[in-house]
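Box 3.1 A note on notation
Throughout this textbook, protein chains are presented in two layers. The first layer is the amino acid sequence; the second is a token string describing backbone geometry. Keep the layers aligned when reading.
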Amino acid sequence: MSLLDQLPIWLTNHHLVPVVVGFLACFVALLIGWRLVGSRSASKPQEASEMKFVEGLRPERRSAPRRKGNTVEVLLSMDDQSPPMCGWVIDRSQGGLCILSDQPIAELTVLRVRPRVGVEQLPWTEVTIRYCREHGHQFELGCQFHRTPTYNVMLQFG
């Protein structure tokens, strides 16, 4: 009797052995992958909770995210009689603009704003000054829109 006759029938099939070895290798790789991914995801919530502790636990109050971009020169006007002042939009959102100005403006002041380029074609947009902070030799004005401008007007603010 030969050695092949003494082996079980499933071992004599030459294609079955590589398939079984392949499945075992895949299973081992899957277990190692689960172990690696599981250890990373377990550590992420701890890092996030540590970050919240460092930054404070206050929730984000902003309803629309700020968007930085190119600074856009704008005109600021309080009324029709006074000449408009210049300012620069440094960030914007659906709710308002952050404008850098050479002059401070009191909180809750209502202003009209429009980009300096294309002055005659674009309408004035009314905003309320929510805060005025010193920013070096200039002032940062947090402006809230009375009504969100149209998409075309928003594009003009950068």
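Residues 3-55 form one domain. The CA atoms of residues 24 and 107 lie 70 Å apart.
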